[in-house]
């Protein structure tokens, strides 16, 4: 019986028969199976390939290896420049540009504020300048570390009758024997500039010397821990400072009061004119004009306005100072010895000598010894311990 | 893009209009002794609580005491008034053994050259909260006679302490000035504000006035003795920092301000020639009328 499939196709017709041409077979033995480098279908033209092969065969292997290494090194150099030295160089260029531009409105034209009982500037007696075997010894922030100071002077071979000692301020507070340091300095006939700690102590005493009407304040018992009044008239919470200030003898206070904010040392061969100040100075501004608060407290200068400040956010004042001195005629250049910035530590530049090496926190105590020829030598001793951990300091920084 | 911007503007305008249409009502009744919430009290109601009054709210009139105001004074008279006023004030506090120090614009003037800023309408001083209480208890409403050093000028001043000094926070903002030193001839005055540690428990060592100027103990004390307008005065320990915090760096560097120019040689703020010319013309016009 002949019957149709369900789709009506005759049974005799197979699916394969529906494919019009069944020649799909490709033999791998035939040449056409393989790809050929025709004239316009290749990666590197055979002519070039041959040429490269020829030249590479002419160059010795050694040289080839060498140039490969060179290439890699060059790449490494390029990358480090891009991510490290390049930005650094740009930053430096920017900084120099900023230091060289005088801002339209710049700090330093106002009249210097005048304060009672504060000596702004003194000039060192000429007899103290280094001559013959006479030396000048400048020591950074002592902070009451009397034993260390004595040890350092011994190390230097300090001769009371011959050498002269200059202290960069902050000889008191934080450390174990502030009074002892003042007495020692006095005994040695040393010179000292007023640091922020001397300033606070002297101001605190000045405040309590005033007559105060019917109010609690500086004249009350400094040992008192709590306040009975809800509000205080005076240095609220500054009992520690007041107690500390009152621990000094009249003679010691008298000696501290004589310390100027700026000490002009005078001319020294090789170095030139030298001044000592506790924290820093603003370049391009006469010494007479320098703001005393800033002289005792500054760390950086904002180049956009040239305003100095205690913060660490701007350009370090000594960097700017050195840059500006180099632009002046040699005669007008000024070198500054200072302390205050223990965090930056010993910091010697051509025109700035930073000598605070954090003795009171277990660092070192530094002396710069200057001889008659103006040769400078750094002498340091290791300090015993971090004194600030043992007892809370009366004041911070 | 543009359509979007218009649409946003329209929608926000619609939303804003509902605020205008619905005024804030003041339902809560004020209890006696309760602190006045600045959001609840209307301007008029707050005005009732104000102790010191000025003849007007603008920059010029706001610097006279209404009780003694007879008209705006000339720049010359203001300069003369303020010069003697601050000298008398500092002398009185010194004589009484009371602590006070110069602040705000007056401190800025001191920083430039130890004098007041010539364009400043009023002068500012500060005292501690304890000194303020003491003034309120012992010297309120006291009058002080003053004779200048050469004897040529005689003046009288009123020390007026605001009865709201018990409140050491801003409150409704109507009594942020704690006391005044008023020249009774023309109503010009020195604003005296007290600083207190308002939060000794949570923020010890932070001193605040009622207008939320804040200072750290270590920025204020120990004070420095200096000279202001020729007499001894006190300024805070870290005066530079206080000035920069309040007025920004530009206040210490800009040499042209309010029609005045800083003379670097004389170290004085001088009126600019343009301003002098302008004032001359104005005076001529008034003379012709």
UniProtKB/TrEMBL annotation, chain A:
Transmembrane segments: 66-85
Family matches, as InterPro entries: Ap4A_hydrolase, Calcineurin-like_PHP, Metallo-depent_PP-like
Name of the protein in question: Metallo-dependent phosphatase
Organism: Aaosphaeria arxii CBS 175.79
A GO biological-process term: polyphosphate catabolic process
GO molecular function: endopolyphosphatase activity; phosphatase activity
Pfam families given in the database record: Metallophos
Keywords: Membrane, Transmembrane, Transmembrane helix
Lineage: Eukaryota, Fungi, Dikarya, Ascomycota, Pezizomycotina
From TrEMBL, chain B:
Gene Ontology, cellular component aspect: membrane
Sorted UniProt keywords: Membrane, Signal, Transmembrane, Transmembrane helix
InterPro entries: FKTN/MNN4/W02B3.4-1, LicD/FKTN/FKRP_NTP_transf
Signal peptide positions (record): 1-21
Subcellular location as annotated: Membrane
Any matching Pfam family: LicD
Membrane topology: Single-pass membrane protein
Organism of provenance: Aaosphaeria arxii CBS 175.79
UniProt domain LicD/FKTN/FKRP nucleotidyltransferase: residue ranges: 95-199, 210-248
Residues passing through the membrane, by range: none
Protein name: LicD/FKTN/FKRP nucleotidyltransferase domain-containing protein
BP GO terms, sorted: glycoprotein metabolic process
């Amino acid at each position: 019986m002949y019957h149709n499939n369900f789709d009506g196709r005759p049974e005799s017709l197979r699916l394969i028969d529906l494919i019009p041409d069944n020649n799909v077979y490709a033999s791998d033995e035939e040449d056409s199976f393989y790809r050929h480098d025709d004239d316009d279908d290749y990666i590197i033209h055979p002519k070039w390939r041959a040429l490269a092969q020829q030249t590479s065969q002419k160059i010795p292997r050694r040289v080839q290896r060498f140039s490969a290494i060179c290439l890699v090194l060059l790449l490494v150099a390029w990358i480090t420049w891009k991510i490290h030295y390049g930005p650094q160089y740009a930053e430096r260029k920017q900084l120099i540009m900023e230091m060289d531009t005088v801002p339209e409105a710049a700090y330093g034209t106002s009249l210097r504020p005048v304060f009672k009982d504060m000596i702004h500037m003194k000039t060192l007696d000429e007899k103290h300048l280094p001559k013959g075997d006479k030396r000048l010894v400048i020591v950074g922030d002592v902070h009451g570390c009397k034993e260390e100071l004595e040890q350092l002077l011994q190390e230097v071979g300090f001769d009371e009758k011959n050498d002269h000692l200059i202290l960069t301020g902050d000889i008191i507070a934080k450390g174990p024997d502030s009074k002892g340091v003042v007495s020692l300095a006095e005994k040695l006939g040393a010179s000292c500039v007023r640091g922020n700690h001397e300033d606070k102590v002297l101001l605190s005493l000045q405040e309590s010397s005033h007559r105060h009407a019917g109010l609690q304040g500086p004249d009350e018992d400094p040992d008192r821990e709590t306040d009975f009044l809800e509000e205080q008239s005076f240095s609220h919470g500054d009992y520690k400072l007041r107690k500390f200030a009152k621990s000094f003898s009249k003679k010691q206070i008298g000696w501290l009061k004589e310390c100027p904010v700026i000490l002009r040392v005078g001319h020294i061969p090789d170095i030139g004119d030298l001044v000592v100040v506790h924290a820093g100075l603003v370049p391009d501004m006469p010494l007479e004009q320098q703001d005393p608060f800033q002289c005792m407290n500054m760390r950086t200068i904002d180049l956009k306005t040239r305003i100095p400040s205690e913060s660490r956010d701007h350009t370090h004042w000594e960097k700017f100072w050195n840059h500006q001195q180099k632009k002046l005629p040699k005669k007008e250049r000024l070198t500054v010895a200072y302390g205050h910035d223990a965090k930056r530590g010993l910091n010697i530049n051509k025109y700035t000598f930073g000598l605070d090496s954090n003795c009171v926190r277990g660092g070192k105590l530094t002396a710069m010894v200057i001889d008659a020829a103006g040769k400078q030598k750094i002498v340091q001793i290791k300090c015993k311990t971090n004194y600030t951990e043992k007892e809370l300091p009366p004041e911070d920084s | 893009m543009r359509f979007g911007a218009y649409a946003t503007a329209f929608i926000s305008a619609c939303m804003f209009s509902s605020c205008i249409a619905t005024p804030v009502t003041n339902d809560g009744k004020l209890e006696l002794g309760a602190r006045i919430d600045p959001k609840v009290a209307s301007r008029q109601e707050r005005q009732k609580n104000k102790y010191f009054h000025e003849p007007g709210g603008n920059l010029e009139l706001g610097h006279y005491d209404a009780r003694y105001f007879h008209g705006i004074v000339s720049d010359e008279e203001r300069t003369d008034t303020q010069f003697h006023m601050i000298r008398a004030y500092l002398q009185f506090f010194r004589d009484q053994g009371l602590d006070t120090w110069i602040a705000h614009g007056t401190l800025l003037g001191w920083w430039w050259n130890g004098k007041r800023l010539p364009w400043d309408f009023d002068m500012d001083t500060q005292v501690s909260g304890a000194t303020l209480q003491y003034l309120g208890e012992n010297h309120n409403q006291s009058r002080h006679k003053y004779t200048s050093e050469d004897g040529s000028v005689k003046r009288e001043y009123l020390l007026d302490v605001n009865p709201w000094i018990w409140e050491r926070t801003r409150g409704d903002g109507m009594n942020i000035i704690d006391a005044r030193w008023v020249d009774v001839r023309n109503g010009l005055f020195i604003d005296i504000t007290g600083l207190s540690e308002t939060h000794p428990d949570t923020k010890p060592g932070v001193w605040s006035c009622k207008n939320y100027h804040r200072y750290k103990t270590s920025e204020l004390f120990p004070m420095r003795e200096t000279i202001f307008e020729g007499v001894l005065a006190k300024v805070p320990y870290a005066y530079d920092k206080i000035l920069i915090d309040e007025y920004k760096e530009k206040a210490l560097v800009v040499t042209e301000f309010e029609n005045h120019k800083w003379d670097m040689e004389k170290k004085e703020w001088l009126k600019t020639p343009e301003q002098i010319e302008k004032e001359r013309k104005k005076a001529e016009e008034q003379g012709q009328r």
